[in-house]
Write a structure and sequence with these properties.
The chain is mostly helical. 67% of the residues lie in helices and 4% in strands. Helix 4 runs parallel beside helix 15, helix 5 packs antiparallel against helix 15 and helix 9 crosses helix 12 (409-436). It is globular. The protein starts with 6 loop residues before the first strand and ends with a helix.
């Protein structure tokens, strides 16, 4: 970190002979300075109206988008049901969106500029964004580790049966859901709470490197001869010990630039500080989220443009009689195969339940653990095949029975979005190569682009930053889905219009919340020139950057290298296999039969 002075005393306090030379001139200068001070103090308390309007509009857009998402994407089974999970989903969406939108608002606010303390406020927005960031740093772990797990436990038990045979009171079903969800949540809360408390007590120290500089001594006689001085307005013959305030400083001018040219490097040292709990947990949540974002964000950076363009290439087209019969026969065969596999899964589960056999991946028995893994992989493959079958069936209907109701503009909108996404992915890739990796950077690249916009209309610069930051979140969500459907390491949770359960909503909201802070940290690093005076730059770029244990990951750019490596490998892989392919039904059937024989 390098501390720089952004203001200077306009002059020195002179007494004796200095005061007797020209009392009238000093009084005029004192009154003028006092008036300027009052104006600056008034400006310091003002808030930029544009920022207030931007905050209100952004919050309204996020809230309306969240409501639209829940209303139109929810499954019919959830209509007029699951109000608690819906509340968590709606405001979790708003929180995730607000986290990334806060970055361009913070950049426009410029409260990290030293002059915002009172002597040069024309450059400042006046918002207390540090308090807003602290609120976000606390709300994200609350949502991820408290509200979403509890809502998921409660929602998953909402099937009309008594969990674990537990019953309390007259309305035993409702209370058993709440009680069971609370039990599970208390277990999660205790584990996470211990982890958070221990890590804060052990790792809350940051070591900030500070560079010292030394300049030539200013001669008072030369300063007096130049006439560049004034009396502090508070100093009078009666009150000679008045308090100096930052409002006595003036913005830098050409004389300061000349003076700073003589500054020399005087070595450096480290300042050890204990960061606040909110700042530490921001770093901890960012570190945890980076493991997801570096993988899923890297996959999505390459996959999102490609899938949007392929949606246009593979758009529904009118078929003749022969093509229609072949497509219908192919779908019928796939349906029959998946019905057979579904029956095998059901029979195997029923037999295990009747025999009292329990298989789990956490078993100490190697054979049981392997059997549980095979069963899970078969189930994930089955769900993936069902999802792709449903997608192909919808495309088939759009090309046949629903052809007249199909909107032909949808593929062209997808193509346009795909081209824009490809351009943004390319810009991100180039910006990382020419600005983030090299030290010093080869060129500011996108930083200059944003500054150029600010020169003639600042709103466009802020919106451009918001666009690039939000795009990374879309890449993370797309990457999670793409990774899950290709490699089947975990259950996929696609967002489908009118067919999405609240459990899928909460999974995706948790993912977005976990990736939100890494996106902000990555953005303030990538746009450090443009965001030099933002508060988040002071937090992530200084305090969190040098937290013990985490420092190695940040300074060595470990996660950024993973992000880029995954993106390059994904691009090569998707170039060879651009289309998603369902799991082989024969392989799934053989795996289930082998697993059944092994259990016997």
């Amino acid at each position: 970190a390098q501390f720089q002075s952004n203001g200077r005393p306009r002059g020195w306090c002179m007494h004796g002979a200095g005061q007797s030379k020209n009392k009238t001139k000093q009084e005029e200068r004192r009154r003028e300075t006092t008036n300027n001070q009052r104006i600056k103090q008034k400006q310091a308390t003002m808030v930029d109206v544009f920022l207030v309007i931007a905050i209100i509009v952004a919050f309204a857009i996020l809230l309306v988008s969240a409501l639209y998402l829940v209303v139109y994407y929810q499954h019919p089974d959830d209509h007029n049901e699951a109000w608690g999970p819906k509340f968590v989903v709606i405001f979790g969406f708003v929180l995730a969106g607000w986290t990334v939108i806060m970055f361009p608002i913070d950049v426009a606010n410029n409260e990290g500029y030293a002059g915002c303390d009172g002597y040069d406020t024309a450059f400042c927005g006046g918002l207390n964004v540090e308090a807003l960031w602290d609120a976000i740093f606390w709300l994200i772990p609350i949502w991820v580790f408290v509200l979403i797990p509890y809502s998921t436990f409660y929602y998953e038990s909402d099937d009309g049966t008594v969990m674990m045979g537990t019953a309390y009171g007259a309305n035993h079903i409702k209370k058993s859901r709440i009680g069971q969800a609370l039990c599970y949540q208390m277990f999660v809360f205790v584990i996470i709470g211990i982890f958070f408390v221990v890590t804060y007590l052990v790792l809350n120290e940051t070591k900030i490197p500070v560079q010292d500089y030394q300049a030539q001594t200013i001669s008072i006689s030369n300063l007096i001869a130049s006439g560049d001085f004034y009396l502090y307005p508070d100093l009078t013959s009666v009150n000679e010990n008045a308090t100096f305030t930052v409002n006595e400083l003036a913005p830098m001018d050409l004389s300061d630039q000349t003076y700073y040219a003589s500054v020399t490097n005087a070595g450096g040292e480290e300042i050890k500080l204990e960061v606040s709990a909110s700042t530490f947990y921001a770093g901890l949540m960012a570190w945890l989220g980076w493991w997801l974002f570096s993988l899923f964000g890297g996959v999505g950076l390459a996959a999102l443009p490609l899938d949007l363009i392929l949606a246009f290439v593979n758009r529904p087209k009118h078929m003749d009689a022969v093509e229609y019969a072949e497509a219908q026969m192919s779908l019928r065969e796939r349906v029959n195969e998946l019905v057979d596999i579904g029956e095998l899964i059901k029979i195997e589960r029923d037999e295990k339940a009747s025999a009292g056999i329990v298989t789990t991946r956490w078993s100490m028995d190697t054979d049981k653990r392997k059997a549980a893994g095979d069963e899970r992989q078969a189930l994930l493959g089955f769900k993936q095949a069902v999802f792709l079958l449903e997608k192909d069936t919808e495309d088939f209907q759009a090309m046949s029975v629903n052809y007249e109701h199909y909107n032909p503009l949808v593929p062209f909108i997808s193509l346009f979005c795909g081209i824009c996404a490809a351009i943004m992915s390319l810009f991100w890739f180039l910006h990382i190569c020419v600005y983030v990796y090299p030290d010093p950077p080869l060129t500011p690249f996108l930083n200059n682009y944003f500054k150029w916009f600010d020169n003639w209309f600042p709103m466009f610069g802020v919106l451009s930053v918001a666009l690039f930051v939000v795009y990374l979140l879309f890449c993370a969500v797309k990457g999670c889905f793409k990774f899950g459907i290709r490699f089947m390491f975990f259950q996929i949770h696609p967002m489908k219009l009118g067919k999405t359960y609240m459990s899928s909503f909460m999974f995706n909201i948790a993912l977005v919340l976990l990736c939100a802070l890494p996106v902000v940290q990555f953005s303030q690093e990538a746009f450090s020139d443009y965001a030099a005076f933002s508060q988040i730059r002071q937090l992530f770029g200084v305090q969190i950057q040098y937290l013990q244990f985490f420092q190695w990951f940040w300074t060595k750019q470990v996660f950024i290298y993973i992000f880029m490596s995954v993106s390059i490998l994904t691009g090569i892989y998707l170039a060879c296999r651009p289309r998603d392919q369902a799991a082989n039904p024969e392989a799934l059937r053989d795996r289930l039969r082998a697993n059944k024989q092994g259990n016997k």
